[in-house]
Amino acid sequence: MNSIIVGASAGIGRSLAEQLASLGHNLILVSSDQRDIDCLAKDLSIRFNSKVELFSLDLNNKNTEDLVTYGLSVLNKIDNLFLIAGWISNEDYIGTSKEIINYTLDVNLRSMIFLINSFYPHFEKTGGNIVGIGSVASIRGRKNNCIYSTAKRALEFYFECLRHSKTNSHFFVQFYRLGYVQTQMSFGSKMLIPTVTTNYISNKIIAGLEKDLSCHYLPFWWRFVGTVLRKLPWFFYSKLNF
Ligand SMILES: NC(=O)c1ccc[n+]([C@@H]2O[C@H](COP(=O)([O-])OP(=O)(O)OC[C@H]3O[C@@H](n4cnc5c(N)ncnc54)[C@H](OP(=O)(O)O)[C@@H]3O)[C@@H](O)[C@H]2O)c1
Fold it and tell me: How is the chain classified by DSSP, letter by letter?
């Protein structure tokens, strides 16, 4: 199998790269700076004897066509596109700067839409999996992480459009709403609900390949939390400080 991981330098993407290499996948690891994934690529190709290539793509710049061209030139066929990358700012509140708004929307939403559109003709022809990552932050609006959660909710919506548009094609789409995961993104945040490891998430993502999953909660208990949060009347919800 041949897989591209966008956001492979850290957290969930890095764990996914290790798991996929151990299963014998050939990989293209994508990060904004190739130097961040150079050692990882060398380590994986030596340990697991897989082909591991690197590609620099700053999602802020959105030149996604180059990744398709590069991917097809080195792997010939791409079976899985993992859109894992994400970015969050601690200045993401109502009234934040245009820079934070643009960067957050570019990395979490616009670039993902460009990537999906760039790879769509390939997957329509050959089949495979496109995997997207959302967040429980988008269950209901909060005063924190406003732009990030807006982007994740919109991305979720775009994945539904993708699922609907491919009804006659043979590729699969999985979209996960993630709870708290132990990575640098959640480091230092106050967690009322237990966190899970990156390995737990990457194992579940791999187990979900070849299935059509819309908005699947990981870990599963967030489905119950999400239902309670959504059903909570505004009077009570507005009093929550989280
Ligand atoms: N951790 C959590 O609790 C949590 C909860 C819900 C959802 N999520 C979602 O899970 C996904 C993975 O998060 P994580 O916790 O593993 O995050 P992480 O450890 O911070 O890793 C983020 C990844 O995104 C890449 N990235 C960020 N900005 C980029 C840019 N401008 N261009 C290219 N790549 C960029 C990073 O690569 P470089 O910076 O090296 O380029 C890195 O590989 C994200 O979509 C996140 O929103 C995480």
Answer: -EEEEES-SSHHHHHHHHHHHHTT-EEEEEESSTHHHHHHHHHHHHHH---EEEEE--TTT--THHHHHHHHHHHSS--EEEE------TT-STT--HHHHHHHHIIIIIHHHHHHHHHHHHHHHH-EEEEEEEEGGGSS--SSSHHHHHHHHHHHHHHHHHHHHTTTSSEEEEEEEE--BSSTTTTT---SS--B-HHHHHHHHHHTTTS-EEEEEESTTHHHHHHHHHHS-HHHHTT---
- CATH classification at residue 194: 3.40.50.720
CA-58 nearest atom, ligand 1 = 32
Number of domains present in the structure of the chain: 1
Domain containing 163: what range? 2-237
Q: What is the pTM of this model?
A: 0.96
Distance 87 CA to ligand 1 centre (A): 5
CA of 141 to the centre of ligand 1 (A): 21
Within a domain: 242: no
**In this structure, is residue 216 part of a structural domain?**
yes
**pLDDT of residue 184 exceeding 90:** no
Q: Is residue 123 part of a domain?
A: yes
**What pLDDT, on the 0 to 100 scale, is given for residue 192?**
72
Residue 37 CA: nearest ligand 1 atom is 40
Residue 35's pLDDT is what?
84
Q: What is the pLDDT of residue 188?
A: 65
